[in-house]
Design brief:
321 residues; alpha/beta; Rossmann fold; Alpha-Beta Plaits; 6-stranded mixed sheet; 36% helix
């Protein structure tokens, strides 16, 4: 289709006194993966629920696949797929029966539903387990089955709300491969995630939401540039050398030097020769180092700058709750 597949204008949602969304504008182009990042409670899941017709917005508007999420809700449900944080599959059915049931609910017909189910089981590496009860599946297998169920009706738009939460790295990467294969075939994906490496790997464009507000948007590289360019990071053998190391390295970068607990970070203009120059200056002062490297900012640096804490801290809090 021409124009954005997902588009919102001044989207708002309240839960009593809590303002979950405060005038959010989003635009997702066709055939792309759009990442929605933010702390727990930032409004990510609320936005997904509105875009998938599960919630009505209190103000603003939203269109998906050319349809209004409120006025055209019934028609829109036929064109979207949704996989949430927890696999919505029936443990008392086999993998095949789960997918066939979804096909029948979409009125695909018995034959088409069965053919589509077998095809998806093969696509998601579940063919050998297709006739087993889902209660015997691992967490990664259930997530893949849930994603397959969201694709039974071949929706052009897929919403994934933290689909890999709790999975081991091997299962996460297998799901990444499946998502990238879908986009290669033309599917548009809106993804919420608490894993910044996931957003960095998958999303072509990312929006960061905090307290219901859209606080940043861009490609992963554009967002990283907001927190500065490359930096020299030095781990000292002794914390007592912090002040002397900051002084020694001030001329290596562009004047911005930070340091605490035996670590010194220096913003630099260029990478070539920087490490050699830094080692020379530290050696002249008799400062011993444990490690030294030039690093590019990560999405976690962006997250910290924009929200005030690391994403890993947010993830740990979520697990504790």
């Amino acid at each position: 289709m021409d124009g954005p597949v997902v588009e919102t204008h001044a989207l708002e949602k309240r839960y009593g006194d809590t303002h979950a969304l405060r005038g959010v504008d989003l635009r997702v182009e066709p055939g792309t993966i759009f990442g929605l990042l933010g702390p727990n409670g930032a409004g990510k899941t609320t936005a997904v629920r509105i875009l998938t017709t599960l919630l009505r917005p209190d103000a603003g508007s939203a269109r998906v696949a050319g349809l209004d999420v409120v006025e055209d809700a019934n028609r829109l449900r036929e064109r979207i797929g949704l996989a949430g944080q927890y696999a919505a599959v029936d443990e008392n059915l086999t993998g095949f029966e789960n997918l066939e049931m979804v096909g029948r609910l979409y009125h695909l017909g018995r034959r088409h539903s069965r053919e589509r189910s077998r095809g998806l089981l093969g696509q998601f590496d579940l063919a050998d387990a297709g006739d087993r009860l889902v209660r015997t599946y691992s967490g990664g297998m259930r997530r893949r089955l849930d994603l397959a169920a969201a694709l039974v009706a071949r929706p052009p738009v897929l919403f994934l709300d933290e689909p890999t939460t709790g999975l081991d790295i091997r299962s996460r990467r297998a799901l990444w491969d499946a998502i990238e294969a879908l986009v290669a075939e033309g599917t548009t994906v809106l993804l919420t995630t608490q894993y910044l490496d996931e957003a960095d790997h998958l999303a072509g464009r990312i929006a960061v939401i905090d307290h219901g507000l859209l606080i940043a948007e861009g490609t992963p590289d554009e967002l990283k540039l907001q927190v500065g360019g490359d930096r020299l990071e030095v781990r000292l053998c002794s914390r007592d050398d912090n002040a002397a190391a900051r002084d020694a390295l001030a001329a290596v970068g562009d004047g911005r030097v930070e340091g605490e607990d035996g670590a010194v970070r220096v913003a630099i203009r260029e990478r070539t020769g920087t490490i050699a120059e830094a080692v020379r200056r530290l050696d002249e002062r008799g400062i011993a180092i444990d490690d030294i490297a030039v690093r590019t900012p990560t999405l976690d640096d962006v997250f910290l700058t924009l929200t005030g804490h690391h994403a890993e801290e947010e993830a740990e809090e979520a697990v504790e709750r």
